[in-house]
Amino acid sequence: MVEIKKEPQPQAGTATVKSLESLRSRIDALDEELLALIERRLALSASAATVKEKDATAPLRLRPRREAEILDRLVDHASAAPETLVRRVWRELMAFGLHAQGPIELLIHAPGRNTTVTEHTRARFGSAAAITQVPDVEQCLHAARTREAVAIVELHPLSNWWVELGSEAALRIFDTIGDETGDILALAIGRVSEQDVPPSPLYPIIGMGSLELRRGKGENIRALAAAGHLRLCLSQGTAR
Ligand SMILES: O=C(O)C(=O)C[C@]1(C(=O)O)C=C[C@@H](O)C=C1
Fold this sequence. Notes:
By secondary structure, the protein is an alpha/beta fold. The protein is built from six helices and eight strands, in the order αααβαβαββββαββ. The longest helix has 34 residues, at 14-47. The chain is globular and about 75 Å long. Bound molecules: prephenic acid. Prephenic acid (PRE) is lined by residues 45, 48, 62-63, 66-67, 70, 94, 97-98. Its EC number is 5.4.99.5.
């Protein structure tokens, strides 16, 4: 018979209780410091509203490129903190910072995969913004054009709602909502200016010929959806 060795159990003596108490009081002190830092960060973020345009058709206060830069830098600097923790915590901090500048709406049109898209939208945009389900895709995009709102629209290889975005200067696809396997479920669209969109990936709307041409030149580009001769693509640039 194989004998299973028991791990030594910690003694519930005074020394252990004392060290747990002292650990907890150090954690409490640290939490107070963290809270004070979070409140200072929120105040700084809130004051960014004063330097952003307030016109209803001006670019959104949301700045995806800046957010991506912050996340990438912190993930890079983290040593013991797991990437998921860093991303989650800072996504929430930035979401509440943005909310302190003024409310932003998240409008979802995803009739096929509503629950999953909503869940992943929350993870991507944090819990500060209100989420509304919009049954009509045009209504969803119209809100993104005219309100402080981001449209999250489900994507299928044969959906064609994106065609009209090809001729619009103000509205841009700036991110994807994906699941755990990396499959793209929906796209995030908003009034984000060209310089505020993360440099990669980009979502060009181009003809089939241009897609082939760009691929031929070594660009890492693929079609996400097709409508007639047009293709909505995801481009990760050209490898150097
Ligand atoms: O840098 C900005 O433009 C901010 O508004 C600050 C901040 C942040 O909290 O760091 C908040 C929201 C933006 O989407 C990006 C960053």
